[in-house]
Model the fold of this input.
Amino acid sequence: MTDHTVKSYDRDLEALGRRISEMGGVAEKMLSEAMEALSNLDVELAKRVVSSDPRLDALQREVEEAAIMTIARRQPLAIDLRECIAAIRISGDIERIGDLAKNIAKRTLKIATEARLPRAIVGLKSMHEIAATQLKDALDAYAERDVERARAVWENDADLDALEDSVFRDLLTFMMEDPRNISFCTHLLFCSKNLERIGDHTTNISETIVYLVTGEAMPMERPKLRPAGFAGEGEAAQ
Amino acid sequence: MTDHTVKSYDRDLEALGRRISEMGGVAEKMLSEAMEALSNLDVELAKRVVSSDPRLDALQREVEEAAIMTIARRQPLAIDLRECIAAIRISGDIERIGDLAKNIAKRTLKIATEARLPRAIVGLKSMHEIAATQLKDALDAYAERDVERARAVWENDADLDALEDSVFRDLLTFMMEDPRNISFCTHLLFCSKNLERIGDHTTNISETIVYLVTGEAMPMERPKLRPAGFAGEGEAAQ
Done:
């Protein structure tokens, strides 16, 4: 490649990085606002979260197209090819995280008029704290190409899974205590599942960072607190 | 491109198509076996479904890598580039469908020892019939590059969403009738959500086929039976 080509190629990669960083910011905001809307049963805020989602979808398509055009035009090898592949994968995971935050906001719209049970939301708030920290760490690890931080995110996902397990049992107990809690708690069960899956996508991002920097795939098996194959949904214990 | 290059390029695309067709077969089998395991609370069959999933994950990575290497080596334009992009997207959706079928199988492992309520599974079987037909149609539409069939799949997804809505209400009713049904029905709620999301991924496949053949994106808004923004999770009414 000539110097000129190299520079314009670097600009391509920088532009990809900027878009992904913008996506990360949008997803983080959607998640924190969705949880705030759920905690306060704030319908207006929930609607704003839902309306942010198309922006994230559009950004994801942009990243995907730009990465693929870069591959087609520049025929990159090794690390530069991995940069493009990582951009495609990470933008896909961030888009899904936004989707899951949107789902929490939509649940808020559905339960806003129902009987409230504030103690049922406590566990979800703890899950959110972990999920938000993990997401921030993964995005920072990507920005800094920090493999150790990415590995730490990967390992900490088990905490979120364990907490979902406990939230699941609590919500079932509330339902059994009083059938009037059933509808409300059912929606919270799905919110809890959404938070757990946000953790899974954050873990995917970590795996992609390790692949990007080292060229190596992480093991298929993720850290678990119980035997594989008997947990709940996805990679999570429940 | 020389004749030789063109032929070897065609072979690349054919190999991609064969792998995707294999993935489709694995996912269809996982879905039908997962539902059979759920209906009969068949633990052995459920375990077999769970153990099929790594094969699908490996195939997806293979398709993704092969498509990206084809883009990098051949610098395809227009329709040929879309073939590669479509392969990446469709293999991603099929992998997710297998994951969701696996989740149904894992739920079966969890509820196998619980109180049974056969009538609670009836609605899920109807959902499965639609989801399986939709998936078969989408895979056939991909194999035949049949845009009309792909569009029909896209439009029929609303039926699955409507049925999930009704299954959701039924399951809530069973829970309210008898608290001993709560745990069992909660797991079925997640199975129903998994079937609805299989429909979403099948719809994604249809959208990709339309993009592949026509070069045009489908509208962002999918057909719905109720106002947007107030439905349940994902694109689904609930």
